Structure formats: C-alpha cells, structure tokens
UniProtKB/TrEMBL annotation:
Domain of life: Bacteria
Biological source species: Mucilaginibacter ginsenosidivorax
Alphabetized CDD domains for the sequence: Glyco_tranf_GTA_type
Record-given protein name: Glycosyltransferase
Pfam families: Glycos_transf_2
Keywords assigned by UniProt, alphabetized: Transferase
Keyword Transferase annotated: yes
All residue ranges annotated as the Glycosyltransferase 2-like domain in the record: 6-117
Record bears the keyword Oxidoreductase: no
Signal sequence, start to end: none
Amino acid sequence: MADMLSVIIPTYNPNETRLAKTLAGLQKQSLPLQGWELIIVDNNSSYLINADLGWHPNYKIVKETAQGLTYARLKGFKEAQGQVLILVDDDNILQEDYLQNALNTFQEQPKLGAIGGKSLPVFEGNPPAWLPEFYSSLALRDLGDEVLAASWDHKYPACAPIGAGIAIRKAALNTYIKKIETQKNVITDRKGDSLSSGGDNDIVLEILKAGWHVAYLPNLVLHHIIPAQRMEAGYMARLINNSSNSWVRLLQSHGINPWPQIAGWTVLPRKVKAWFTYMAWKNNVNYIRWQGACGTFDGLAKQ
C-alpha cells in the first residue's frame, strides 16, 4: 500500500446536491481509480446518506456515532489503507489533478507531513462586499503562486494547510491519534450544528511538533461551495465568535497562546467596552469584528 491514497469525507447531514458535486469532482481525478480508495464517514447523521458511488471500485461508507468532526476524522484515519490521506469536506470540489499532485509531492519530499493549497469560492448567491475580510473563517484562501513551507517554530505558521483538502502522510499522524485516544479534553471541532473549530489546526500542530514539515502548494486547488446562508451577517458573527474562542483555547492547549488569561468577572465589562470600541452598531463588519473580540474574551477567561 506504499503508493495507495485514501480520500476521507467526514460528513454530518450532508446536502445531497453539494455532496454530488464533491463526488463528481473526485470521479474526474487524473489519478487512476485503482490507486486510491474513497471513505465517507457518516458522523451520526439523522438520515441515510444518498450518494452515487457505483463508479468507484473501492469505496465504503462507515459510521462514527461519537459526535464531532474530530472523531469522524479519526474514524477515517483508522479505516484508511493508504499511506497518504486527503480530507475532503462534503462541499469541496477538487481540481482534476489534486490527488496526483498530492501523491507526487509526498513521494518526492519525505520530510513533509501535511500539505494544502488554494481553496477558492463558489458562491451560491451574491456575496456581500464585506465578505472577503472573513474568507479565512470560511476555509477560503489563496496565498499566491509560490511554494511556502514551515517547520516547528513554537507558533502557528501562516502557510499551514487548512482542513479543506488537507493531505497528510499517515505516518505523521501517530502522535495526534494517540493524543485523541488518551486525552479527556479533546478539541472536537464541528459538533452537530455547532460552529466550533480548531481540529485541523490541532492536527497540524501535532504534526509539526513531531518533527515533520508542512507546506502550501499552489498546484493543489479546490473549489469550496459557500451557501447563501453562510454569507449572512448573523451566521458570520456566530462563526467568528465561535472560531475566535476555539482558536484561543487551541493555542493554550499547545502552550503557544500569546495573550494572557483574564479573570472571568472581567469578560462582561470587556465586551461592553468593545461594543463601543468597535462601534458594533454601525454596520455588519463592525458587529462581526465585535463578536470575534467577544469570542476571544471567552477563550481567555480563566476556567
């Protein structure tokens, strides 16, 4: 299985139309079907997943009842036979050469533990003019056309792969898997309808701390479907709030949080002050920024 690749799609109550587009993108991959397997991990959905998979000779749908994207990913890691694993969200459409490029990279660069590339938007509706400021929270990014790489430097590298389309050398996951299986306070990432995050960042940090390198590769391109609902100010505010909180707690768990903790009783007055500092009543952008600050305060509060 040295040259085998496994595509893992963790999903919870997927939209059938978007999932079909994700699968259509995989069906068009230049890497021959015999060279990779397809694993869909149903994270305890409330209905049966309906998907056309007959085109692939080596696929399976497995169920993970422990709620949380982290547990769904872990299930996929354990089920995978390949030595290269690619996590694909159920609203990602990979460019036709994605799998082949990822496999080639790992074969050519033995120190790389995880890689990612461009995640470009496909909007279902007209995006508001203010949305680009928050692209990173929607798992959208384009760092240009140069290869960027990083090793462990006691901070989170800007070029680190994002969860959408991250390709991982299976051997680099040993430390992370052991951590998830043995620790009680696990970062569960998305859980049901929650907008918490950080699971992919946790994977990257464990890979870096284990001595592997990570990289951004511009030849890894996927298109990320963004539904109209995710472009609404209310959704974005909740997303930024939850992700800011999760980000602080993630950094704390790895001992690289640059901000001091704060007393719990100061959280409310800080939020009130920030309401005026950000002029949160003025427009959607200011309100969303304020919600991000509130999430940071919650994350920094001593438990």
